[in-house]
Write a structure and sequence with these properties.
five-stranded antiparallel β-sheet; 2 helices; four-stranded antiparallel β-sheet; alpha+beta; globular
């Protein structure tokens, strides 16, 4: 979704404010980017063994999860999943069944995820950025090109539907980040 920002922002005429929203465990999240479509994925880190959850992952990703200490496996799994989901949402594929064909690990340093083409859709590239979402949640934003900046807000726990989003200027903040 996108809109022209208000004139008071100082952005040049024709600039677009692109946004996406996500919810997880009753919390609301919002990602904004300037002039780049953005997709957001947020998930709670699963509890318990992760073995059965590894099906939509490549062999490289499965190894990455399984080589982690037991206490970090679920976090790694959830982070890889949010990268895949954000990339698929951005490209409009929505074919989560094809997630095992998407490598969210190899291009992680650059944030680049290649979405393979199919008979119905051409291949595309998404650029993902992991975002801080709290100790038991993971989040990722995807854009169509490397993003010089994107903003991420998490609504406060209390009054999540009526209160303003919390914003901070530090990428280390747990409630917001500049991606």
């Amino acid at each position: 979704m996108f809109a022209e920002p208000p004139a008071a922002t100082g952005w040049p005429p024709g600039a677009r404010l692109c946004l996406d929203a996500a919810a997880d465990a009753g919390r609301q999240f919002l990602a904004l980017a300037r002039d780049l479509p953005v997709a957001l994925s947020v998930h709670t880190v699963p509890r318990g063994p992760v073995g059965e959850l590894l099906l939509p992952f490549t062999p490289l990703e499965r190894g990455y999860v399984q080589e982690a200490p037991l206490g970090r496996r679920a976090q790694r799994l959830a982070q890889l999943w949010t990268r895949k989901e954000a990339a698929l949402r951005l490209t409009g594929r929505g074919e989560l069944a094809a997630a095992d064909a998407i490598d969210a690990l190899s291009g992680a340093r650059e944030g680049k995820i290649v979405i393979p083409g199919s008979a119905a859709h051409p291949g595309r590239t998404a650029y993902v950025r992991d975002l801080p979402a709290g100790p038991q949640s993971v989040a990722c934003a995807a854009t169509s090109d490397p993003a010089p900046g994107a903003r991420f807000w998490r609504a406060p726990e209390a009054g999540a539907y009526g209160g303003p989003a919390v914003e901070a200027d530090s990428a280390e903040a747990t409630d917001t980040a500049t991606a």
